[in-house]
Amino acid sequence: MHTTQLESLLNWRYAVRKFSEQSIAQDKVDKLIELTGLSASAFGLQPYKVIQISDQATKQALLAHSYGQQKVLDNSHLLVFAADMSPLTSQIERYIQDFKANRDLDELVYSQMEHGMKDALKALDGESQYNWCSEQAHLALGTLLLAAASMEIDACPMTGIDKAAYDEVLALSPLNLKTVLIVPIGIRDSSDVNAGTSKVRKSKDLLHIEV
């Protein structure tokens, strides 16, 4: 992808205020999630899950915990990023098994990797694990937004929700998951004037410090 193409995609995408009634084909949603899975992640662990919701009744139940933001209901699909709160030792062991299935390395290398990862993360308590997993989910969000733009899928990342209530509605606790953020996706409505406005961003001088 040329820089000019990337710049065009970044200028095309915006935080959609209103979605149309158009639906996104399921194969495109599947591809979007697949591309999101290629995101950078600490140790490659990807300690989160992406929950895909198309059921309107479920969206309606979540709307009550979204501070009246109607796009939680009016979209093609609602994606929920949730932190994986299962034991990190188990997540690491699963990752090492996947790594072995895809690489041909000496067993000592796998052992060193596993012990190194476990040692680096062993001090995380429940709150720290949630915060760390949330950071990884936010990295994946950036990938999702760019991938969505490349597929002409509109999206609106949102954190202004009652996360605990989302956990309850979606019955996430038994799955060792905790809500981090949501991303309604769909096709922008032609009446959404924000689609055609220029972005207001910091200048390079305000954004950038050179040391």
From TrEMBL:
Keyword check for Transport: no
A Pfam family the protein falls into: Nitroreductase
Record carries keyword Oxidoreductase: yes
InterPro entries attached to this UniProt entry: Nitroreductase, Nitroreductase-like
Ranges of residues in domain Nitroreductase: 11-186
Transmembrane segments: none
Any one Gene Ontology molecular-function term assigned to this protein's record: oxidoreductase activity
Cofactors, names only: FMN
Swiss-Prot/TrEMBL keywords: Flavoprotein, FMN, Oxidoreductase
Similarity annotation: Belongs to the nitroreductase family.
Name of this protein: NAD(P)H-dependent oxidoreductase
The organism of origin for this protein: Pseudoalteromonas piscicida
